[in-house]
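Final report, Chapter 2: Outcomes

The project's central promise was a pipeline that accepts a single protein chain and returns its three-dimensional structure in a standardized token representation, suitable for archiving and comparison. That pipeline is now operational. To close this chapter, we reproduce one record exactly as it appears in the project archive, with the input sequence first and the structure output second.
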Amino acid sequence: MLKKVIAALGLAGAALVSVALPASAQTQAAPNCQFGSSYGVVEGSAPVTPITGGAAVGSAQVCRDSNYDYWGFAIYSSPMTVSQWAQVYLNRYRDGILVDTITCDTPGGNDRIGPGQTRCWTPKLTGLSGRWTFQTYSEKYSSHTGSLLAAGHTAIVR
């Protein structure tokens, strides 16, 4: 009887570990649409790819919260080196006409992506009216030469 109890406890423990591993792996993965300590919904996403071609080095995203406030977000797969930086831009359109462009450097954002960093977000802009649409793009630059190294932009989304 004791062997059956120990075996059952071992199976229950294994089941808990198998359930816990994906959850812990998920929290270690880089989340999308971060804004401070909270997260939003991805409304549009596009890869950021090197200008010279090749695999994506990051993702540009249009994000939304439950209040229909929108922000731009980018996450790169590797931290910027000491000679790189990246920026995220959020365009806001009213009836199809560009009216605002903000960046991570705009007050309320968390500053551009610098050496050792992988992500930034812009401040939030209201999108409550159905007349607003949004587009995010991100660009990665060489801080030595000013050359554009990678870029990507989303479609215009609501």
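Archive annotation: The radius of gyration is 20 Å.
This record, like all others produced under the grant, will remain available to the consortium after the project formally closes.
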